[in-house]
Write a structure and sequence with these properties.
The chain has 171 residues and is mainly alpha-helical. The protein has helices at 2-5, 18-43, 56-77, 90-113, 115-130, 135-156, and strands spanning 16-17, 47-48, 51-52, 86-88. α2 runs antiparallel to α3 (56-77), α4 (90-113) packs antiparallel against α5 and α5 (115-130) runs antiparallel to α6.
């Protein structure tokens, strides 16, 4: 643990501090809580003749979330936490982004190419580029997995999955 906090030269390591991440997460959750409370008031967050209004419970859940978020932000900014602790260093962030980037592209590809084709391409590229498997093995696994899911959902359960803009081609 001490090795992560200080480098060999005794200088502060570079990276994103835990306090900054804690503040950002707290701010996002506080914003979400405010949205929940405002929308709950529109639904009716009070007590009616026949019990609580539709927004009663969501309002108080939003209020609890807002108080907790404000506490998280206060804790992060008050200096009570260690401001030298690193949440993520650049090397670890690159590893996370090497997974997150392709996953976001996959979500976009599903919208265009549909679940089956996008999944096959995603699995094959993921295996080849990050797993360093051969192209043959990557393609075989990708086709086998998507083929099994196609049979499972489309043929056996008769539950069609999203096919994107290619749906007219399949009819």
């Amino acid at each position: 643990m001490e090795n992560e906090r200080q480098s060999d030269a005794g200088t502060r390591p570079s990276g994103l501090g835990t306090w900054a991440v804690q503040t950002c997460v707290g701010a996002v959750l506080l914003g979400l809580a405010v949205v929940v409370m405002v929308e709950s008031r529109k639904l009716g967050a009070g007590w009616t003749d026949d019990g609580p209004g539709a927004g009663y419970f969501p309002f108080f859940i939003g209020l609890i979330l807002a108080v907790a978020s404000a506490g998280m932000i206060y804790d992060a900014l008050s200096g009570k936490t260690d401001r030298t602790e690193i949440f993520v260093n650049p090397q670890k962030l690159r590893r996370v982004l090497s997974i997150l980037g392709p996953a976001l592209l996959y979500v976009l590809a599903v919208q265009l190419a549909g679940l089956y084709l996008a999944s096959a391409v995603y699995i094959a590229l993921f295996m080849r580029l990050l797993g360093k498997y051969s192209w043959l093995r990557s393609l075989l696994v990708a086709l086998a997995v998507t083929g099994v899911f196609f049979c499972l959902f489309e043929l056996w359960f008769r539950v069609p999955l999203f096919k994107g803009s290619l749906a007219p081609l399949g009819r």
